[in-house]
Amino acid sequence: MSANPELAFEEHGTAAAILAVLREHGGFTVEESVGGLATAFTATVGSGGLVVGLCAELDALPGIGHGCGHNVIAASAVGAALALAPVADQLDLTVRLLGTPAEERGAGKAILLRHGVFDGLHAALMVHPTLKDMATPHIRALGHWAVSFHGRTGHASRPFDALNAADAVTVAQVAIGLLRQQMRDSDRVHTVIKHAGDSVNVIPGEAIVEVMVRSDDLSQVEELWSRVRACFEAGALAAGVTMEISEPLMWLNGFRHDSDLAHLFRQNAEALGRTFPDYPDRSLGSTDMSEVSVHMPAIHPVLSLAGAPEDGNHTAAFARLAAGPEGDRAVRDGGLALALTIADAALDRELRHRLTRPGPFRWSSPAGGTQR
Questions:
Q1: Taking every annotated instance into account, which residue ranges of this chain make up the domain Peptidase M20 dimerisation (predicted)?
Q2: What is the pLDDT of residue 280?
């Protein structure tokens, strides 16, 4: 995976390589192209009453490769599945490895969820690399839109005959910059200009911007988006152009960690030498795994790759870390901790009962007890 990164929905070689490993070891029942996605798959072993999913993310980042460590995520999940396979029936377990495409762009897990690929699971687990060890990172809700401005193209020597769509982008970005002083500490707004002209001597009549808004939950995302949208409307008004906003390209909840499973993972990772901070786990990222956590007990711990603060996720430096010895260590620790956590859950009578009992699912809250 490190040497051959593939983008969202195009992870054909990655999926094939993982399935080749599973078939070599034997015992897995494989389904390919699940949920209507060509690169998604499931591989199931065991026939026990507790059915647990392991998520293997497949996609990489444009121009960076595995700068978010999905190679580590996938290898950890495969390692956990292979470790559990020989003892699955003994533990009364069914283990389902899910190859999940397009986390970075496309919310692949949300698509698979809607198509029933996660149906029948009692819990879903994965582990993610970053620069710190955190058992329950605070993962934000997210909204993602495309904004298009439509003006009138003209020769740069006659700008008075044109309506400059790029000017609308500039005004909107300045307005968003001024808005930041009113934003909560947990809020994030980021944009990228996808198109704003092709030639310096042509006034651009079209411009496209993508924008992401993050906050603690979707209600706060909606609240902040209303302010951000007004910034884009101001740009259109100032430039005299029209504006279109897409339906949300992604719309993701914040993550709900199951505290019992997270506690087991932390214990197992600590036994392997990992150190978790006592201060609150903080993160400003988002993931489509959050959608899974709304529907079933789930965890998304993160493990450290020892690097400089500027070498964090979504950088070329992090891609190098993930492909090197630090990535190998995270695969080993992550895979073992996931496997041990699932085994512990299978052997814990009270936890197994909570996970498998019929009716509306309940996840364990951080304060103890359960919540709907």
A1: 142-235
A2: 64
